[in-house]
Design a protein that fits this description.
This protein is of the alpha+beta class. It is 10% helix and 23% strand.
Length: 239
């Protein structure tokens, strides 16, 4: 019978129960840290020495404080913007009717000695174009534009004593009209030489008084009408 000591058997190469010691220099077993570098060379996450633009802190460019204003120019060269609240809104002027029975002189300047441009017909309509002006005597003169007897548009100055504000009615190159009555569908007759409102009303079987009243907004006086004026007929309302 052969007898062996247990210590001898444990030292034999066929005993695979033990793991041989690890060679500290074997490949793949480097004592690396979380990023593969040696512990003393590792950089902790988030601790990079670079600044916000990725450059070292001493090479970073500091933020630029632009001294320019809203228009890109230095503050002392900027143009001050106007305050919208200080702008003057455009002024509306009234439509005026000529009151002078014999017509009204339209002059080149705001005084009674300047040249007469034309004579505006009684009851005709003109548009005020600017603020009035006073002459040396204190008389008010108003700048206007309107149609003369020749059917042309003229501009100049008229005495403020012979016109009044009148919103209704208007004039065209031929004569006086009433746009409101036309929009409402009233038929009209154009005045010819020798006509009168009475004659026009009777010719078209319309009541004379109603015809006069209907046309009062643009015919200042029923006894004074001119060729080219439009007389609207009350009995022929359309629609």
């Amino acid at each position: 019978m052969l007898l062996f000591a247990w210590d001898t058997l444990d030292d034999q190469p066929w005993n695979t129960g033990k793991t041989p010691p690890t060679d500290p220099t074997a490949p793949g077993d480097a004592p690396s840290g979380v990023d593969g570098a040696l512990p003393d060379e590792q950089t902790a996450p988030g601790d990079a020495p670079s600044g916000v633009d990725g450059a070292p802190p001493d090479e970073q460019t500091p933020p630029v404080n632009d001294p320019s204003g809203v228009d890109g120019a230095p503050p002392d060269e900027q143009t001050k913007q106007p305050d919208p609240g200080t702008e003057t809104p455009p002024q509306d002027f009234p439509q005026l009717a000529v009151l002078a029975d014999d017509g009204l002189n339209l002059r080149t300047q705001p005084d009674g000695d300047s040249t007469v441009v034309t004579v505006l017909q009684p009851g005709s309509f003109v548009e005020q174009t600017a603020a009035p002006s006073a002459d040396e005597s204190g008389e008010a003169w108003i700048p206007v534009e309107g149609f003369g007897p020749d059917g042309e548009m003229h501009s100049g100055w008229v005495s403020g004593d012979h016109v009044e504000a009148h919103a209704d009615g208007s004039s065209n190159p031929a004569g006086r009209t009433n746009p409101t009555l036309e929009q409402d569908g009233y038929q009209w007759v154009e005045v010819k030489n020798g006509d009168s409102i009475r004659l026009i009303a009777r010719t078209h079987s319309a009541d004379v008084a109603e015809t006069v009243v209907l046309n009062m907004d643009h015919i200042m006086s029923p006894d004074v009408i001119f060729s080219g004026d439009r007389i609207y007929l009350p009995a022929t309302l359309v629609g």
